[in-house]
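Entry:
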Amino acid sequence: MFKKYKILKWTSLSIVTLLVIIVCFGFWFMSLIPQKDLSLETTQKKDLPYLSENIVPTRGKILAVVTSTKTMGTTDKPTGYELTELARAYYTFEANGFKVDVASPKGGKAPVVIDDEDMGMYDYAFLNDSIAMYKANHTIPLENIEFTDYDAVYFAGGKGTMYDFPENKTIQSIVKNYYQANKVIGAVCHGPSALVNVTLDDGTHILKNKTISSFTNKEELLLISDAASVFPFLLQDKITESGAIFNEGDMYLEKISHDNNLITGQNPWSTWVVAERMIAQMGYQPKHRALTDEENAIKVLLAYGKHGEQKAKEVLTSLLIIEQKPVNRVLIAQHGIIAAMQGKIGDFFNLTSLVSFAKKCELDRKNQG
């Protein structure tokens, strides 16, 4: 009896100790995450030097296409276009001298997905830009578009595109005609769903033997385990079945493919590069843009993935101490959580260590200043 009581006592103590450790670790982990800068929410277009300084003369027009789908298939899960994927491309085009019109299959107010954790100054500026928001809330029906007016087309992502882009005959027509006229076609994340049912005049599929990136199966299934039944298809599978060479990068990190006039990106973090590569493909040197804190964090994460923790710390030191550039700690922490979700506990602790190191670098820079 005494022995049984002793075992229960030690078991209880072990559980309590473990819970205390978990709670303490949780508080410490949260202390590494900076408080959200609420001032970002009031960012105006005029506050962004990229847009307000060294203005480029008008060069032409680009059509941005977003989804009209509000819910995922037969579910009641809300969806729409991803704000970051429209806002960042929109401002890149505008900064480089292109006017932007926004269209959708149905026209009118397009449903939007806003992820607070991913919102940056450009995204808030877009929300505070009356002209940009008017275009997003009064999208032009695709059937009313005069396609010859535009120099390029860009398909923003968002899971809603999986339902109304692939079978849309107008989308198929513009993609085919732009491709055959050697006009630039860009798409990011789920946006490449616009390409999966396009057949050229010679009978070949537009994606045959093309190098393409899009949201991957791994990225989709990690967050929506039943994605194969929620969506009409998994985008990576459909692109591969179409004869494309699928170019897959690290999960939730920047990755693009550039195959002649087709420029595609894997996920929202690829938007900046897709838009800038479109500008370059049209024959212009993209205007200089200071990288965002999110893009700098991606540099750190890519360094970690390729070369390990020590190299990632060297990149952090260079960015934060030497170059005095911002790094988004939240994004690094998010990738630590993603690693934990995948059972990669070592990566979780290593990435958490990088977040802590980044915080220390920021404090050191502050003290030096």
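The chain has two domains: 40-281, 291-369.
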